[in-house]
């Protein structure tokens, strides 16, 4: 597992709403140990808040599930050499070719397009 990203003002302003691990567990209907496993498996991404607690962007959840395509996009980003903070920033930064942000496109079930753009970053 990579280093856990520290939240910074730029990431905080891009992401907006953050959820604690217990809040994510409740929304997903999973035990907190399973949420921690998703983080270890890099299927979700968390940052460390100033108080030391880890938090996950609320935008990573779509109702009672993880946004479809997020885990595969994270895999592509990490395979391209992104660290947690870079991946988070990329997901929440507007991309005029999508349009909108990659996380917005994932919500709209445009994971293939998002992953193509992520793969292009490696070249």
TrEMBL record:
Superkingdom in the source lineage: Bacteria
All copies of domain DNA-binding protein Rv2175c wHTH, residue ranges: 16-61
All residue ranges annotated as the Rv2175c C-terminal domain in the record: 67-122
GO MF term list: DNA binding
InterPro entries to which the protein is assigned, alphabetical: Rv2175c_C, Rv2175c_wHTH
Keywords: DNA-binding
Stored Pfam families: Rv2175c_C (PF18367), Rv2175c_wHTH (PF21531)
Name of protein: DNA-binding protein
């Amino acid at each position: 597992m990579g280093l856990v990203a520290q939240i910074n003002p730029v990431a905080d302003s891009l992401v907006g709403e953050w959820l604690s691990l217990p809040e994510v567990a409740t929304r997903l209907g999973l035990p907190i140990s399973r949420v921690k496993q998703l983080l270890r498996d890099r299927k979700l991404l968390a940052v460390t808040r100033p108080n030391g607690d880890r938090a996950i962007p609320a935008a990573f959840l779509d109702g009672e599930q993880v946004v479809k395509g997020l885990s595969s996009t994270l895999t592509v980003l990490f395979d391209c050499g992104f660290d947690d903070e870079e991946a988070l920033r990329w997901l929440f930064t507007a991309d005029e070719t999508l349009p909108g942000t990659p996380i917005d496109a994932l919500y709209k079930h445009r994971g293939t397009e998002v992953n193509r753009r992520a793969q292009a970053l490696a070249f």
